[in-house]
Amino acid sequence: MSPALLRAVLACALVCTCLPLAAQDVLKRIAARQQVNLGYAENAAPFSFRTAGGPSGYAVELCVAVVERLKRELGVQQLPVRFVPVDQDSVARLVAANSVDLLCAGVSDTPARRVTMAFSSPIFFSSVKLLVRSEDGPQSLQALKGRTVALLGRTTAEAAVNAINKQQGLGLQVAPVVSPEAALSQLRLHQADAWARDEVLLLGALARESDARKFTLLPDTLSTETIALAMPQDAQLQRVANEALAELARSGRLEAIYERWFVQPNPAAAAGLKFPLSPQLKAEFARAR
Predict the structure, then answer these.
(1) Boundaries of domain holding 253
(2) Alpha-carbon distance 49 to 47, whole Å?
(3) Are residues 236 and 115 located together in one domain of the fold?
(4) Could you say which of 208, 224, 240 is where a domain stops?
(5) Strands 102-108 and 36-40
């Protein structure tokens, strides 16, 4: 084999191995195994979290509605659900490898992630913000110059902090953490001066803490993001997911589900998050109909 031909063969092999497996027919795979695998995050309230009774949350409830729509699509009466815990580091890998059929969590829809996965129509619009200690924490982004910010790795909050750090020359020091609990612990112990994450996820984390009043959200918005249900790159599954969300929107149930998880008292927030439906999301729900 000539060197040129060998290079061409190797290049082709590399492209083939790098392509996501998600081009397969996901609906046929679900029908063949007679089970749908739903990925969820165990600590991303109110989108998804673990309770004594199993996975729960806003995104989980929406995924269950998609499963009901899948039953009609496949013409089956029963479709067992297997919930798969997914951490932030394995989101892209598990979806691209078809280990989960639908990811029920607060996943940001970004151009980078669209390379390996597909997304439903928007279910939420989020802002990345900073949580600080109320007693002595800085009261603005500029006051954080040279300070330490806790971050969960492989999140869009990480990209937002890095971008604004570079743009404004803040000299922020990043402290990687493995969980929301670790981030709060670093704040309590003064090992970090702020924690960057989606605003509603910060509120969800605080809702379960007895000392929530010791922390304050800064008004600065680092970035805004579209949140959606993530899935393998399969047009039919994406269509079914969007049809399920459209049915919920037409019936009024979509807004009711939102109210249950973002406004009213619920298992993730005993007093409720009091985070009303934004005009942007209300308009998106109307378009989904």
Answers:
(1) 16-124+227-288
(2) 7
(3) yes
(4) 224
(5) parallel
